[in-house]
Amino acid sequence: MSKNVCLVGSEGKMGKNIRTVLAGDSFFGVLMGVDPYEEATADYISLEEVPVAEVDVVINFTNPKATLATALFCAKHGKPLVTGTTGLGEEELAELKQYAQQIAIMHAPNMSLGVNLIDAILPLLKPLAEEFDIELIEGHHRQKLDSPSGTALRWARTLAAAFNRRVVFGRTSGINQKRDMQEICVQALRGGTLPGEHRICFLGPDEVIEVYHRADSRLVFAKGAVKAAKWIIGQPAGFYGMKEVLGL
Ligand SMILES: NC(=O)c1ccc[n+]([C@@H]2O[C@H](COP(=O)([O-])OP(=O)(O)OC[C@H]3O[C@@H](n4cnc5c(N)ncnc54)[C@H](O)[C@@H]3O)[C@@H](O)[C@H]2O)c1
Asked: What's the gap in Å between 12 CA and the centre of ligand 1?
């Protein structure tokens, strides 16, 4: 029997891409779109109006505040949640994890296959630690609110743990000193309609290695979200990431 999805943020850029992916997937049946967007084109309802008994899984791509409201809704009604919202502060993340004691929550700042595979293989590059500096540069469209991106933060943390280094953000004007090899420097570029690109540069003596990922459209994230939604139905309560979804 097909499963029903409640999609919170259904009128957003990600919401529209997820609707496209869901429309071509027979695993899923009814789609309940939730979005307060005033010019909503689809049939949409508010969270309070959702016929909860019919919901098998909730997908959320909105903002931190709406994400926590969605998590509360899911915990109250025992529904698994997939959320891709980025920009959650430490306290907001802690609150989200609290709800994961009651229900299964999959939270990932980037749901593309490539980005998650790269995160898994970064520790293999540890032999570069002796001689290579690490710089991480990411670029996104001009509308993106959070900076640096959740993916850049995640890769930077993975690298910091594997290479035993610390993460710094940008370079301040007026500072006149050589680069500290202990630093992994993260920089953000914003503009145009760029869906998202991330580049890690390993800069060594007479040798440069780059690890690069570019999303040409949001469909790559939407496919990941739908894959996660299939995976999370029936999972026990817990806080999961794409690592678990992809079996990495
Ligand atoms: N995890 C990933 O792979 C991934 C990929 C792309 C974007 N994102 C993140 O997803 C989030 C959304 O991105 P977007 O580009 O779709 O943004 P967007 O602004 O286009 O869409 C957000 C939608 O959420 C709706 N919304 C706001 N408050 C709501 C509420 N209380 N209830 C229901 N809907 C509400 C808005 O009306 C809007 O339509 C951002 O945090 C973005 O960084 C994550």
From this structure: 6
Q: What are the residue numbers of the active site?
A: 140, 144
Atom of ligand 1 minimally distant from the CA of 40: 39
Q: What percent of the chain has pLDDT over 70?
A: 97
Give me ligand 1 centre to Cα 207, in Å. Answer: 40
Predicted local distance difference test score (pLDDT) of residue 48: 86
pLDDT tens digits for range 158-182: 999 999 999 999 988 888 889 999 9
Per-residue pLDDT band for 79 (boundaries 50, 70, 90) equals very high
Distance CA 5, CA 20 (A): 13
Cis peptide upstream of residue 148 (ω within 30 degrees of 0) = yes
* Beta-ladder partners of 57: 5
Amino acid sitting at position 79: K
CA atoms of 83 and 229, how far apart (whole Å): 10
Cα–Cα distance between 92 and 144 in angstroms, integer? Answer: 19
Output DSSP code: residue 126: G
66 contacts 242 by C-beta, under 8 angstroms: no
The pLDDT-based confidence of 212 (bands split at 50, 70, 90) is: very high
Which residues, judged by CB distance below 6 Å to any ligand atom, belong to the binding site of ligand 1?
A: 8-9, 11-15, 34-37, 61-63, 66, 69, 84-87, 108-111, 218, 221
